[in-house]
Amino acid sequence: METPAFWLVQLFLCLLWVNHVMTLGLGGARHQAIVCNESLMLEKLPTCGKSFEEMMKKVDSKKWCNLTEFIMYYDNFTQCTEHEANNASCFWPNPLAEHFITGIHKQFFSNCTSEEVHWEDPPDEILIPLILIPVLLTGAMITLVVWCSKRSDILV
Ligand SMILES: *[C@@H]1O[C@H](CO)[C@@H](O)[C@H](O)[C@H]1NC(C)=O
Ligand SMILES: *[C@@H]1O[C@H](CO)[C@@H](O)[C@H](O)[C@H]1NC(C)=O
Ligand SMILES: *[C@@H]1O[C@H](CO)[C@@H](O)[C@H](O)[C@H]1NC(C)=O
Ligand SMILES: *[C@@H]1O[C@H](CO)[C@@H](O)[C@H](O)[C@H]1NC(C)=O
Ligand SMILES: *[C@@H]1O[C@H](CO)[C@@H](O)[C@H](O)[C@H]1NC(C)=O
Fold first, then answer.
1. Run of H or E residues at 125
2. pLDDT for 111-142, tens place per residue?
């Protein structure tokens, strides 16, 4: 049985979020009080996309749907976006950065839905958690982000 690479990517991204929010929650309250420079962040993010593109060029495009082939580059890419967002005093993840990351997903993984990746549908007891966990985590993250930003508003 093969696993849907896309959901694994989502899951991976969510785990990064959790990790990040935990870190922020424990030590970064002051950081959030600074105003996010969205234009600076949007200016910097394409650099991350560029270097991800460069790295993906080393991978045979037939293997672009194979998670094990690119997970390291993907990790590097998400770290890059996080770094740039933080450097622009932005909370990460944020809707703008997410929009950018989704664009990168479309660019590289749009063909990974069914034809190129030939997986059988895993049994429901595996598929449902794979879908639900990212969805639930995303919801939790959004709540946390909203809560944190409200809190930092009060602090300011
Ligand atoms: C945001 O970054 C831009 C550079 O892209 C800079 O020109 C601008 O002054 C910054 N804005 C703030 C509020 O720091
Ligand atoms: C994905 O890549 C890994 C490492 O190169 C390889 O072992 C694995 O068989 C590949 N999986 C598929 C489905 O091509
Ligand atoms: C991640 O990317 C940066 C810049 O593109 C590069 O310098 C660094 O070596 C990369 N790290 C890994 C683990 O690939
Ligand atoms: C981080 O932002 C500062 C300006 O706020 C800039 O001078 C610096 O080059 C940035 N660093 C990186 C790695 O982008
Ligand atoms: C996806 O498939 C279309 C049509 O076959 C092709 O033009 C496009 O370059 C492919 N995109 C990627 C990222 O492989």
1. helix 124-155
2. 886 544 444 555 666 666 776 777 788 888 88
